[in-house]
Amino acid sequence: MTLFDRILAARGLDDQVTRAAFLSPDYDLNKHDPFLLPDMEKAVNRLVEALEKQDKIVIYGDYDIDGLTATAILLDAFSSFGFKNITAYMPNRFKEGYGLTKDAIKQIAENGADLVLTVDCGSLSTAEIELANSLNVDVIVTDHHNVLKVQPPAIAVINPKRLLMDFPEAYEGYVVKSEYRGVKKIYPFLDLAGCGVAFKLVQALQTRLDGLTDGQEKWLLDLVALGTVCDVVTLIDENRTNVYWGLKVLARTRRPGLRALMAVSRVEPESVNARSLGFALGPRMNAAGRLETAQIALDMLIAKDSEVAYEKATLLDEMNTKRRADQDKIYKEALKQAEKYEKDSVLVVSDPDWNHGIIGIVAAKLLEKFNKPTFVLQEMGEESKGSARSYGDFSAADAIRASEDVIIKGGGHKLAAGVTMETKNIDAFRERVNQFYREQSLSLADQQKKLLPIEDASAGIEDVTEDLIEQIARLEPFGNGNAQPIIMSSNLEVAHVRRMGSDGQHIKLDLRADSGLAMQFLAFNAPDEFFVEVNERVNVWYQPDLNEWQGRRSVEGRLLHVRVLPASD
């Protein structure tokens, strides 16, 4: 059995039929019926009526990339369907915050809107939707975040997570159990991103409206892929299919904005992959909402003129450079503060000068550094806003709910959430989330083991070749639920150690097998245990990749974990 065959087998791809379905997913075969989603029929009926009357419709977006792509999907598709009076409203992170707000609803109503259609938000906005109703504005919610037991009074609330609440016994994770598949009229897969839910609405409308013939919706998959990968939902089931084909669409996208964004990001269209989306295109688009307004990114996405598109893409690139500098400054300050709470199982750090548009990234970096769930807050006078990142069995969203008496509001997902509180309550909140951790009977040591990489296969470095890396590329798109394969190579000698970066925070190792063959391994912002000594012997876990530099290609490893072997080994 070849090394690639062993990798496939480790992922349950043992037989040829299963492998073929995974390596080349069939779009039509894997497309679930959109009318199995809650309230889809109600939403379609209202939108058919809106088209007949040419109602004034406002797409209420969100400032992150999932909301941006969902907004662009609906603007594009609705134009094809023949809607004439349609605009987008992008909330400002710093003035309005996440989701529907009463002030925005009042402004939208004053401008004569008949219908608001949310994307990536709205499931918890009962008061705001009640206000809209009182102002004779209908609301359709499309979302994928946590839901209420009683839905807000919208025309429709299209959210897959409603089914997890209504039929908890029918799902394992976010996938319907085999014994329920086809038995109940429920949607088979619940982990769609906000852009994925918006795309399902488009598919449903295709059954009732002209203008976007069956199959033409595939040209929207470049946007679906971008939002799905960057929102870090699981890349299985329908998500995998949409991203797989979305990358192919993106390689020859018709959108001047995405072509310009790839150009400034130095991404070659013919080689675009999920990593390009997550680490090149996505951060530049998100930079707009983190520093100023997401409208800049939306203007780029929907630009028809190439010069305008390139101007916006260049601005996003510049903003991303500033975002990285600000992020590095905040991270260094947060590191020092985190050391004060080294005994805490959950880190809570705060400062008045930390931009709350960036602190979510810093929380993720602190989690990676300390292997602890982390809340990072900006103190904004009497009120503070924060972002959380978690892992393993600790739910950031549940921790926030357990702290309801000391916060103003909060919510989100298990692994990522947001919270607002009075600044004077930060210490109380810190104590409350750590108390919640203890009440879960979680062992920090056991939880941290969940962060250790698990190899798909063990192999000598002589088996990690360019041919293998080309085979591994067939498993794209990589992301949550379909990670790039991990190899473990054992008993390698440390031949050379090089520190890199302004603070020596990055590392490059030359490791040598007994055969004399050597291979380079790199890690950015490496933890302390990666800084090994020459002549030590190590086991390493890594993701193999190709390094191309000045026309030369070499195989290298993206280092994930290092274990130094005792001298006797």
Topology:
Layout: H1 3-10, H2 16-23, H3 27-30, H4 40-53, E1 57-60, H5 65-81, E2 86-89, H6 102-110, E3 115-119, H7 126-134, E4 138-142, E5 156-158, H8 161-166, E6 171-172, E7 175-176, H9 194-206, H10 221-230, H11 237-251, H12 256-264, H13 274-291, H14 295-301, H15 306-338, E8 347-351, H16 359-370, E9 374-380, E10 383-389, H17 396-401, E11 409-412, E12 416-422, H18 426-439, H19 444-449, E13 457-458, H20 466-472, E14 487-500, E15 506-512, E16 518-523, E17 537-549, E18 552-564
Parallel strand pairs: 1-2, 1-3, 3-4, 4-5, 8-9, 13-14, 16-18
Antiparallel strand pairs: 6-7, 9-10, 10-12, 11-12, 14-15, 14-17, 15-16, 17-18
Helix pairs in contact: 5-9, 5-10, 6-7, 9-10, 10-11, 10-13, 12-15, 13-15, 14-15, 15-16
CATH top level label of the largest domain = Alpha Beta
CATH topology of the largest domain: inorganic pyrophosphatase (n-terminal core)
Low-confidence stretches: none
Q: Please tell me the CATH architecture of the largest domain by its name.
A: Alpha-Beta Complex
What does this structure look like?
By secondary structure, the protein is α/β, with parallel strands linked by helices. It folds into three domains: about 25-215, Alpha-Beta Complex (inorganic pyrophosphatase (n-terminal core)), CATH 3.90.1640.30; about 340-450, Diaminopimelate Epimerase, Chain A, domain 1; about 455-565, OB fold (Dihydrolipoamide Acetyltransferase, E2P) (Beta Barrel). Helices cover about 40% and strands about 20% of the residues. α5 (about 65-80) runs parallel beside α9, α5 (about 65-80) runs antiparallel to α10 and α13 crosses α15. It is globular. The mean pLDDT is about 95.
